[in-house]
Specification:
The complex is a heterodimer of chains A (about 300) and B (about 250).
Chain A (H helix, E strand, L loop, with lengths): L1 H14 L3 E5 L8 H7 L3 E3 L4 H13 L3 E7 H5 L3 H9 L6 E5 L17 H6 L5 E3 L6 H11 L4 E4 L16 E3 L6 E6 L4 H4 L3 H4 L2 E6 L1 E2 L6 H10 L1 E9 L4 H12 L5 E7 L10 H7 L4 H12 L1
Parallel strand pairs in A: 1-2, 1-3, 3-4, 4-6, 5-6, 8-9, 8-11, 11-12
Antiparallel strand pairs in A: 5-10, 7-9
Helix pairs in contact in A: 1-2, 1-7, 3-5, 12-13
Chain B lengths: L1 H4 L4 H17 L6 E4 L5 H10 L5 H5 L30 H14 L6 E6 L6 H12 L5 E7 L2 E2 L2 E2 H4 L5 H8 L2 E6 L3 H13 L4 E6 L14 H4 L4 H21 L1
Parallel strand pairs in B: 1-2, 2-3, 3-7, 6-7
Antiparallel strand pairs in B: 4-5
Helix pairs in contact in B: 2-3, 5-6
The chains are: A alpha/beta (about 300), B alpha/beta (about 250).
Chain lengths: ~300, ~250
């Protein structure tokens, strides 16, 4: 998605003169053209994320739309208080962009992973979090964020690689219709379900959510959950502050019938070992054989 | 205000009262902004806002009361003259840099005055901001350090050594000028020196925490303790005397 993001930034430079691009000294082999196109509106703020975020708040207060880019944990957790106090409490249009959500930075290790960013960001006042599913979502998300006068966080990752057609970007999208169980997922990791055997997929009603906090659940999805009475959530993020908990809370407000509620989520580093994003997904039953077995059991 | 509220932070406000007054009535223009990064001195800021006509005496009476906008630390989005809520230290200088950068893009020439405490210099984010300001030559950020040598639980030189502070600031690339932060004539001289410089400037204002509050002047206690009746009366007299002296120096 980083390439799509850079491409959209290139188109946006002239279209949005109030857009200012800030990076925390990252973007090698990715943002060079963005730097050229934005000229003096591109600022490498150095390895100083706390200053960068407050600076962005000042720019936004001054009538500009700053986009603040770094690796996901560096742009969310390092300057967390600056985001809360200077950006969110003042409801300023600062656009945070974190590359490598979840285990996206793979073998780079735990300091570069981001397993709590959605939770940390979605609880902040006035903040809207965007989690695109495929690379082609990114352009639309960027334009939506640019026109939103509130704070936003965009979580980038490798886009899902799937064969089926995907509806245009929306907060909720239904990807498949099935008759046995409902899947509610966030982010490209849901591709691992969509790429399971057809015999499994045809039983699943797969939905993805791409915006947090959750503002309502589609009626059709509620009906399906009421009918099938089993739902499993999936995210490359800790469950205790992620989709698992927030969707359960939203569901409780809407649903009277009892259902089976199961979750697939990142548990961190169960073995203490490191590997590629795919390896971490498999270790956490978010991919590979563990995912397949979990889904088979879920459908029984 | 503190006396009525029976509240602490008296020392912090007395430490920077003349600095804020000088900025409000001797330095800033209508289009400029003030960020009190040491937000715990909010009462001093609210007082200057009242004198500037941006809030009313009635507002001032609500200080610390339930339902007030005038909390112990400046609030967001409510009061003209307070662009940013502050209270957590180490934010203000970056915010000032952002505002000045925005005005540079918009070619407006706005100046932003940022008052930090000296204990606040322990915060790493403040030095990130300082480096950024120098690197981008943001000369319209006017940084004033309330150098009272005291912080939350000790003297600055005992907690985390700051000296040689002026030298450190100069080495980064600031024009750093020392002045007496309780003396308008000295502040005026500092201002003139900064305005002659082509580098970003910082005024290191030598002050005394709890200035004029004799029982607790220059003590950590002045940060926390509320005032007793007789202390309040003595302080009012002291402030009046000091004010007359300062004005006569101009």
């Amino acid at each position: 998605m980083r390439a799509e993001f850079a491409e959209t930034m290139l188109e946006s430079a002239d279209r949005y003169p109030e857009m200012i691009f800030l990076t925390g000294d990252l973007g090698y082999m990715a943002l060079e053209k963005v730097r050229e196109r934005f000229r003096d509106r591109f600022i490498n703020a150095g390895v100083a994320e706390q200053n960068m975020v407050s600076l962005a708040a000042g720019l936004a207060y001054g009538g500009l739309k700053p986009w603040v880019y770094s690796i996901a944990p560096f742009v969310t957790l390092r300057p967390y208080e600056q985001i809360r106090n200077d950006v969110c409490l003042h409801d300023l249009p600062v656009k945070l962009v974190g590359n490598g959500g979840g285990y996206g930075y793979g073998i780079m290790g735990c300091t570069h992973h981001s397993l709590e960013d959605i939770g940390a960001m979605r609880i902040l006042p006035n903040m809207q979090v965007y989690v695109p599913f495929v690379g082609s979502d990114v352009g639309q998300v960027v334009h939506q964020m640019q026109s939103d006068p509130h704070p936003n966080y965009l979580r980038l990752n490798l886009g899902a690689r799937i064969s089926q057609p995907i509806p245009p970007f929306a907060a909720w999208r239904r990807l498949t219709c099935g008759k046995k169980g409902v899947v509610v997922g966030a982010g490209p990791v849901v591709e691992n379900i969509l790429n399971l055997d057809t015999s499994i997929i045809e039983d699943l009603d797969v939905w993805i959510i791409s915006q947090f906090p959750i503002h309502g659940i589609p009626e059709e999805l509620l009906e399906q959950i009421s009918r099938l009475r089993r739902v499993i959530t999936m995210e490359e993020h800790y469950g205790q502050c992620g989709l698992r908990e927030t969707f359960a809370a939203s569901l409780l407000e809407k649903l009277s019938a009892s259902i089976r509620y199961q979750s697939l989520y990142a548990q961190g580093y169960p073995s203490g070992r490191y590997g590629s994003q795919r390896w971490h997904q498999a270790e956490n039953n978010l991919g590979g054989e563990g995912l397949k077995q979990t889904i088979i059991e879920f459908l029984q | 205000m503190y006396k009525t509220a029976n509240a602490g932070h008296v020392g912090a406000s007395l430490s920077c009262a003349e600095i804020l007054t000088f900025i409000a009535f001797g330095w800033m223009r209508d289009e400029d902004e003030v960020i009190l990064s040491k937000g715990h001195a909010a009462a001093a800021l609210y007082s200057t806002l009242a004198e500037r006509g941006l809030i009313t005496e009635k507002d001032i009476e609500t200080f610390y009361c339930d339902g007030t906008y005038l909390a112990a630390h400046p609030p967001p989005n409510r009061l003209k003259g307070i662009p940013f809520a502050t209270g957590s230290l180490g934010h203000g200088l970056s915010l000032a840099a952002g505002l000045v950068l925005a005005s540079r893009y918009k070619k407006s020439g706005k100046r932003v005055f940022c008052i930090t405490s000296d204990g606040e210099l322990d915060e790493g984010s403040l030095w990130e901001a300082a480096s950024f300001i120098v690197h981008h030559s943001l000369t319209n950020v006017v940084w004033l350090i309330d150098r009272n040598n005291l912080q939350g639980f000790g003297r600055t030189e005992e907690v985390m050594k700051l000296e040689p502070l002026t030298k450190r600031l100069e080495l980064i690339g600031f024009t750093a000028v020392e002045c007496n932060g309780h003396d308008f004539a000295s502040l005026e001289q500092g201002k003139e020196q900064l305005e002659r410089s082509s580098q970003p400037g910082v005024l290191v204002c030598s002050t005394r925490k709890g200035k004029g509050w004799k029982p607790y002047e220059n003590t950590v206690d002045s940060h926390y303790l509320p005032m007793k009746n007789e202390q309040y009366e003595a302080l009012c007299e002291e402030i009046d005397n000091q004010y007359q002296l300062s004005v006569s120096g101009l």
